[in-house]
């Protein structure tokens, strides 16, 4: 039995609960792994009955990784060691909670598109400590919905940074960089390729592709330590963002080697993507693809059934062109899955594991 006694900074709100996040019995690096009890002396404590031979690490959080303990100067703190054979009492002095891992680049311009937008870059644990290491990158659409409640649709973000931090610290996913590309008032035109015809004049999808490939990616590659090869570069999104991700992998197979299409809007423009999978099918030989659909995508049973039929049709097409389930593509039907940020964020860990564990 080991007692953990934690002292937090004086400016920590007294109503905030502290937690331990760590290996194995400490919650597999969930930010709320082991809750601590607040004592009258303002310390936070718990007793742990660790398995014999246990050796692991931990950090203190205020319930999310955005508020994990830092070195007091805004920098990441290395995890603390914990051993079953160690001292029966461990005292921890938290220096600060000012650790942040998301860089915001507001007003990012484009010579291809009329609107500026915010580019959000989440850096993995250890990025600031291992200066000789380079990282895979996952570019994601609707970036305002990924990290922050105050910018997310309906105030519910995916929590993509929290999920990625947990999975990386637990060793389930190698460290990666997440890049959120916010949408614009032209979202449907940017994410929805059109067939030839009168509507084509409003189609900005090709311009959006050039924006990502010729402007955003070079910016990220120049500012951060990235692995630039297609096998280390992914693109993903949900709904219309899932649809444009499939198109981008098809258009740029030498840039994007990983694709995540969560609840993709395959109905768009009379199933335009489904009708053209066979056109230039070479991208299928290079790209690792995640496709999923929730059982309750639509408010009606008929709508949900139609959505599922389309995604099943896509997976049959992937298989026809040499894709092998669990090797190069993964199709998942999510029990109870709905068409919203909470549901997409709830399976983001599975997406990361499939796309990047083989990186």
Automatic annotation (TrEMBL):
Domain of life of the native organism: Bacteria
Gene3D superfamilies on file: alpha/beta hydrolase (3.40.50.1820)
InterPro entries: AB_hydrolase_fold, Esterase-like, Mycobacterial_A85_antigen
Protein name according to UniProt: CBM20 domain-containing protein
Organism ancestry: Bacteria, Pseudomonadati, Planctomycetota, Planctomycetia, Gemmatales
């Amino acid at each position: 039995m080991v007692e953990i006694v934690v002292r937090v900074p004086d400016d920590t709100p007294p109503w905030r609960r502290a937690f331990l996040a760590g290996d194995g019995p400490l919650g597999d690096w969930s930010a709320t792994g082991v809750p601590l009890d607040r004592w009258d002396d303002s310390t936070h404590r718990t007793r742990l009955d660790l398995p014999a031979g246990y050796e692991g690490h931990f950090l203190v959080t205020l319930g999310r990784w955005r508020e994990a303990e830092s070195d007091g100067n805004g920098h990441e703190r290395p995890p603390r060691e914990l051993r079953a054979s160690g001292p029966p009492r461990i005292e921890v002095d938290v220096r600060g909670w000012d650790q942040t891992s998301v860089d915001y680049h507001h007003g990012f311009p484009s010579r291809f598109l009329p609107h500026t937008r915010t580019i959000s870059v989440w850096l993995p644990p250890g990025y600031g400590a291992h200066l000789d290491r380079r990282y895979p990158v996952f570019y994601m659409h609707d970036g305002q919905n990924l990290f922050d409640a105050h910018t997310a649709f309906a105030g519910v973000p995916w929590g993509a940074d929290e999920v990625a931090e947990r999975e990386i610290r637990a060793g389930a996913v190698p460290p990666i960089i997440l890049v959120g590309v916010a949408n614009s008032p032209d979202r449907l035109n940017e994410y929805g390729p059109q067939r030839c015809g009168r509507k084509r004049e409003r189609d900005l999808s090709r311009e959006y592709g050039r924006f990502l490939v010729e402007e955003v990616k070079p910016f990220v590659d120049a500012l951060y330590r990235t692995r630039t090869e297609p096998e280390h570069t992914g693109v993903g999104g949900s709904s219309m963002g899932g649809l444009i991700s499939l198109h981008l992998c098809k258009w740029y197979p030498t840039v994007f080697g990983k694709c995540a299409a969560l609840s993709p809007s395959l109905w768009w423009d009379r199933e335009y993507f489904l009708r053209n999978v066979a056109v230039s099918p070479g991208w299928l030989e290079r790209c690792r693809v995640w496709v999923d659909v929730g059982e309750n995508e639509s408010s009606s049973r008929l709508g949900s059934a139609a959505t599922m039929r389309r995604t099943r049709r896509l997976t049959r097409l992937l298989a026809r062109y040499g894709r092998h389930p669990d090797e190069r593509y993964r199709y998942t039907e999510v029990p109870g899955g709905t068409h919203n940020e909470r549901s997409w964020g709830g399976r983001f860990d599975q997406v990361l594991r499939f796309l990047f564990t083989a990186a």
